[in-house]
Amino acid sequence: QVQLVESGGGLVQPGGSLRLSCAASGSISSMNAMGWYRQAPGKQRELVARITSDGFTNYADSVKGRFTISRDNAKNTVYLQMTSLKPEDTAVYYCNAVRLRPGVRHDYWGQGTQVTVSS
User: Fold this and answer.
1) How confident is the model at residue 27, as a pLDDT?
2) With 0-12 CB in 10 A as exposed, 13-18 as middle and 19+ as buried, what is 16?
3) pLDDT of residue 106
4) What is the pLDDT of residues 18-35, one digit of tens each?
């Protein structure tokens, strides 16, 4: 079992920046992928960014060029650097870890951190 704890959310003005952190209780190097998802009120949870164990990254089209995901295996932490924030980025952001085993996928989730972009 892996526990994930997000931090770094808050209120920021449009055009501002925030860095989210996701600290894992266990080794993230054993995870096949780490990611960030978000869920805005009345909307479905969506993938924001993902990084695999070999460093491959992918992003939602809406955040490409503005957000950067990274991982520090030594600290068992994943980051999401968010720049040029827009009001539509307002959501609860969740950290996700995926462990794949033959025929089985395990997903682990954090409790979420609120990001509000508003003037």
Assistant:
1) 87
2) middle
3) 94
4) 999 999 998 888 899 999
Name 71's Cβ contacts closer than 8 Å, sequence gap at least 6.
28, 34, 51, 77, 78, 79
- 49, amino acid identity: A
Is 113 in contact with 59 (CB distance < 8 Å)? no
* CB-CB contact of 46 with 57 (8 Å): no
- What average pLDDT does the chain have? 96
Non-local CB neighbours of 110 within 8 Å, separated by 6+ positions: 4, 5, 6, 22, 94, 95, 96
Report phi then psi at 27, rounded to 5: -75, 125
pLDDT value at position 30?
87
Q: In 3-state terms, what secondary structure has residue 63?
A: helix
